[in-house]
Amino acid sequence: MKCAIMLLENRQQLILCPETEYEKNLFNSFSASPKKVHFKQSQFFDTVGGYTRFENSSDFMIVIEDSPEIDTKEKPVGMY
User: Domain check: are 39 and 19 in the same one?
Assistant: First the structure.
């Protein structure tokens, strides 16, 4: 995967360019349903019990989770 970071006056962009079929399929799955995106500073490490955990560090992590469908026809008061 190729990555680029654009730092502009009013915007910062992280651009990910998939190169393999696996990466392309992964990106296609992101657009298949609504997602929530979180940005965290984290670092992964293995525990004695065989689990993988993360802790705060200078590494940057983007977390993408499935999000419930949002009905765009009826917006709650104050949500625009």
Answer: no
Residue pair 42/54 in contact (Cβ under 8 Å)? The answer is: yes
Distance between CA 13 and CA 5 in Å, rounded?
6
Beta 52-66 vs 35-46: how paired, if at all?
A: antiparallel
For 26, the domain range is 1-32
In the DSSP assignment, the letter for residue 18 is -
> Is residue 54 included in any domain, yes or no?
yes
Which secondary-structure segment (H or E) carries 7? strand 2-7
Q: pTM score > 0.70 for this model?
A: no
Instruction: Report DSSP letters for 23-59, one per residue.
Output: HHHHHHHHTSS-EEEEEEEEEEEE-TTS-EEEEEEEE
Helix, strand or coil, per DSSP, at residue 63: strand
Q: Please report the pLDDT score of residue 12 as a whole number.
A: 87
H/E segment holding residue 16: strand 12-17
